[in-house]
Amino acid sequence: DVKVTQSSRYLVKRTGEKVFLECVQDMDHENMFWYRQDPGLGLRLIYFSYDVKMKEKGDIPEGYSVSREKKERFSLILESASTNQTSMYLCASSNLPGKQETQYFGPGTRLLVL
Amino acid sequence: DAKTTQPPSMDCAEGRAANLPCNHSTISGNEYVYWYRQIHSQGPQYIIHGLKNNETNEMASLIITEDRKSSTLILPHATLRDTAVYYCIVTRSGAGSYQLTFGKGTKLSVIP
């Protein structure tokens, strides 16, 4: 089974802090994704990466950056956390796109910014 | 990506089949139908996907109409652990089509 793990299930940070969210997948997947999920807004894509050291902006990249130094690890960085970044953050991974593509999600990190 | 329409909520008795409908009347010929579910406070879980043929796996069956404008996800013997929000997603797979767009889904409640 594909396993996607996230470093924390719950996190509380203060406004202005730098926050690191880590994601690791164990299936040698090429693609990795970071989403945030908010009530009434569904899942929104922040960034994705289709290879080591490669990254692409999603729909809402402002206030975030990412790092992919190794294939199995994709980090989301909040440079200066703000209260409007309080959310559920979900990491996912998938194989190279071909005829079919399936994304496997981690358990999520609930971030509260005070 | 094509838009999907799902009922906001459904109930199903434990042990009975749960049939979750999805309309995707503007689906294109190269777009797949995917189903995910999200149990409360967890990440979404992939269930099944298909293009035009019916599909079955250990979790569920997917029935796609011949004109591909609608589909039904079938959980053959629903259990309490199947209570979740179920998302029907239509997406074009291939290079550059990385994003999954989740709508509001159907909240399935399995009742003892």
Helix content of chain B: under 10%
Structural class assignment of chain A: mainly beta
Global morphology of chain A: globular
Alpha-carbon distance between the two ends of chain A = 37 Å
- Please tell me what the overall shape of chain B is: globular
* Poorly predicted regions of chain A: none
Q: Which value, in Å, is the CA radius of gyration of chain B?
A: 13 Å
Structural class computed from helices and strand pairing of chain B: mainly beta
Any idea what the radius of gyration of chain A is? Answer: 13 Å
Oligomeric state of this protein: heterodimer
Strand element count of chain B: 9
**Largest interface, C-beta closer than 8 angstroms, per-chain residues:** A-B, 28 and 22 residues
Report the count of strand segments of chain A: 11
pLDDT averaged residue by residue of chain A? 91
Q: Name the helicity range of chain A.
A: under 10%
Order of SSEs of chain B, N→C? EEEEEEEEE
- Average pLDDT figure of chain B: 90
Beginning-to-end CA distance, first to last residue of chain B: 37 Å
The parts of chain B where pLDDT drops under 50 for at least 5 residues are none
> Number of helical segments of chain B?
0
Largest sheet of chain A: 7 strands, mixed
Describe the protein.
The complex is a heterodimer of chains A (114) and B (112). In chain A, 0% of the residues lie in helices and 53% in strands. In chain A, strands 2, 4, 5, 6, 9, 10 and 11 form a seven-stranded mixed beta sheet that branches. By secondary structure, chain A is mostly beta strands. With 112 residues, chain B is mainly beta. Chain B is built from no helices and nine strands. Chain B has a five-stranded mixed beta sheet, with no helix packed on it. Chain B has a four-stranded antiparallel beta sheet with strand order 2-7-6-5, with no helix packed on it. The interface between A and B is medium-sized, with 28 and 22 residues.
